Amino acid sequence: MVRKFRHATAMYMERIPQFIERQFIGIAVVLSCVALAYPPSFTWVKPHIPLGLGIIMFGMGLTLEFEDFREILRKWPLVCFGMVMQYLIMPLLAVGISFALGLPAEALIGMVVVGACPGGTASNVITYLARANVPLSVTMTLASTCLAPLLTPSIIYLVLERRIDIDFGSMVASVFWIVVFPLVDGLVLRRLFRKRLEPFLRYFPSLSILVIALLIACIIGLNQQTLLAFPVLVLVAVALHNGLGLAMGYGLARLARCSRRDARTLAIEVGMQNSGLGVALAVKYFGAASALPGALFSLWHNLSGVWLARRWRNTPNS
Asked: Tens digits of per-residue pLDDT, 14-31?
């Protein structure tokens, strides 16, 4: 009788992560609708966004090995290729889409600022959920962030002829504490306590899904007024910017004979920007109206990323 009870309990516990993984689009949509109707239900999460991302990165570390990053060092040309795409495709798309849709000057500025930003930490989460190459994603995020204080102002100056400054120290410190530190903690703990942690690893993808759904709901709550105003043209521009970035990142990577796994990772890194930085720069140097594309991008690239992760998660990676 006791054995049957334990077996039934184990089966039930196994079904919980399976259900969450199958339904994470639905979970994200439900939480987002609640946030749109009543923002305070999720806006309290805002101060804890770095902690949420850190928890997810810690979970990633538990699923990886140090050898995975040694492999990335041998693939340094792939990282350089990703950097070129990151800082070339997104700024060019921002300008092209803005002119094609006839966006007002403020929106065009916001699109260019977002396009000139480095990859965001959310890309690491989406790569993890999509079962793509997490070490490559983390390496590219770190590399693009380190280059951002030089390249982001340069791109903005070339396109908009406006000078801006980015604090290199704070950017790198942010990526270190949100991405690198928890990831390395997870890697070390797995190396030291592999057998003891093995039974719990199955639940980390489910935890990641719940955390990212919570973060998306928080972003929607924070931008409720913007979303209810429904700036259709800017939203279309943002969706095209993100979608074409993902498509071109994947397509060019496949043309360069990258594996599907690496191509998916490059697509995510190219198409997902550090839109939080984009919003901060737009507000500081160009005005609140120019921050609209960045605010919409924060929401859209998370939703499209979750959808893409679910699709790729269930298809062959090789």
From this structure: 677 777 777 777 888 888
